[in-house]
Amino acid sequence: MNYEFNKVKFNSLITNHMFKMFVDKNLSITLVRCLLVLSALTVYSCKELDVEKTNFSKTQKVDEIIKRIKLPIIGSEVIAITDMGAIGDGLANCKPAISKAIAEISAKGGGKVVFPKGDYFCEGPIHLESNINLHFEEGSTLTFSQNADDYLPVQLVRWEGVELYNYSPYIYADNKTDIAITGKGKLNGSAIGGIAEWRTKQKPAQNKSRQMGTDLVPVEERIFGKDNYLRMSFIQLMNCSNILIEDITIENVPFWVIHPTYSNNITIRNVEINSTRINNDGIDLDSCYDALVENCKFNAGDDAIAIKSGRDQDAWRVNKSSKDIVVRNCLAENVLHGMAFGSEMSGGIENIYVENFFMKNVKKYAVQFKSNRDRGSYIRDVFIDGVFIDTTSTAVFFTNDYHSYRGGKSPSDFSDIEIKNLTCNFAYGKAIDVQGLSSKPIRNLKFENIIINKEMDLSTVKNTTDGSYKNVQIHKEESDFSN
After folding, report:
1. Where are the alpha helices (DSSP H) in 49-139?
2. Contact 347, 320 (CB under 8 A)
3. CATH homologous superfamily, domain 1-69+300-483
4. pLDDT per residue over 393-439, tens digit each?
5. Could you tell me if 331 and 297 are in contact, meaning their C-beta atoms sit under 8 angstroms apart?
6. What are the angstrom distances between the C-alpha of 326 and each of 292, 347, 416?
7. For residues 400 and 23, what is the distance between their CA atoms, to the nearest angstrom?
8. In this structure, are residues 27 and 294 in contact, taking their beta carbons and an 8 Å threshold?
9. pTM value?
10. Per-residue confidence band for 480, with pLDDT thresholds at 50, 70 and 90
């Protein structure tokens, strides 16, 4: 099918952020890329670019990853939680009914646990079994309690890159296969007071957890939970495979929102996240592989999407990288950062493919790579093609000297990173800020077809080797690209 570029319609889409029109299944990746390039040529009236008439150079690799990803196989049984005694009045505790439905359907080989239209209240976490789909019908809302004791006993988690035992995440699974969370309903973490305010109290336990990780204290001795004030991830799936999270809306969460850890065969699509507290990352893929994130929308207090792989010595012990991940056709409306890599990346990050990421208001860094002198390991083979940014402080940011390092003897290696077809309307800080270490320069960093319409501060690219900058247009009189 042939598509004709319509400048007026395109500008309207960007202005009104009508995201669904960009991710309609009838629009190909190539079309959206063309729209990005055409926007650079028409909206900003910049000089003509020498754009290669080729598809995304890593298309074959992307296709291979997506073909490998297995969707969950769910049994045919269906149980509505209302059949187990749940009342959708927003007041009655539905946790017993939810747990009973999961147990019964699991005993029958798996199936769908349905939340019909209604307002449901859950005092405590939901623990998933294999072959289960939690399905939220349109008009359903599940709200979780904020009584911390409801989330005991403690469970094994990875918290800010360190393995430990903490309060249970709100939705949790460990060593399960074929699990799904789907439907047009809403999940609410009730992040008003209570657990949501723990950040002001977490520092002693946070420091203790990091020291335990550094000292390689046996994991079974790393017991936190009560009176330690470590906020829980909302959805944390540990050591799981064949995961689908689709169509749901998540709001008002105290900490990280969707947090797969040590998991594979992950599909997250058509998910909307509205949670704007501090540390509210939308999706954290943590030492995961074979994952697809697409058509998701973010209003988040921190990173929209972050690729992570653990912190320092504890992650070296685990030795699991994040790799073979595809992110495409997503929208960040209001976030602190857009697409982030690190800073917990000590297991390594590699083979990441990002296509067509639309960002409206990014308060700090639209594309961010960060580590420090303790993390070690690497970020390599990252390919970003197609980023449209309305406003941000800095469009692209790199550092392997992030704050809070503990000794500084293991700097991370960044190499073979390509960013192309990025346009930004206004960067009110630096357009591009690359700060490599003189002792560990960033290697083979490539920028191509970059248009920053306006920057307020001087762009810098320092301590890099073997980089290239093709068709980089920053609309300020002077920028410093010295190595």
Report:
1. 59-68, 95-107
2. yes
3. Single-stranded right-handed beta-helix, Pectin lyase-like (2.160.20.10)
4. 999 999 998 866 677 889 999 999 999 999 999 999 999 999 999 99
5. yes
6. 5, 18, 17
7. 34
8. no
9. 0.89
10. low
Indicate the pairing of strand 378-399 with strand 442-452: unpaired
Residue written as token pair 């040529």: 41
d(CA 249, CA 139): 11
- What is the Cβ-side half-sphere exposure of residue 136, based on CA atoms within 13 angstroms? 25
Answer yes or no: is pLDDT of 163 > 60.
yes
Percentage helix, strand, coil for the chain under 3-state DSSP, each rounded to 5: 20, 45, 35
- Residue 477, Cβ density class (10 Å: 0-12 exposed, 13-18 middle, ≥19 buried): exposed
Q: What is the CATH number of domain 74-280?
A: 2.160.20.10
User: Mean per-residue pLDDT for 241-264?
Assistant: 99
Instruction: Measure Cα distances from 41 to 34, 323, 408, 451, 453 in Å.
Output: 11, 34, 44, 10, 11
Largest CA distance in the chain: 69
Q: Two tokens at 92?
A: 């009655």
Nearest to 236 by CA among 178, 169, 307, 325: 169
Domain residue spans of the chain: 1-69+300-483, 74-280
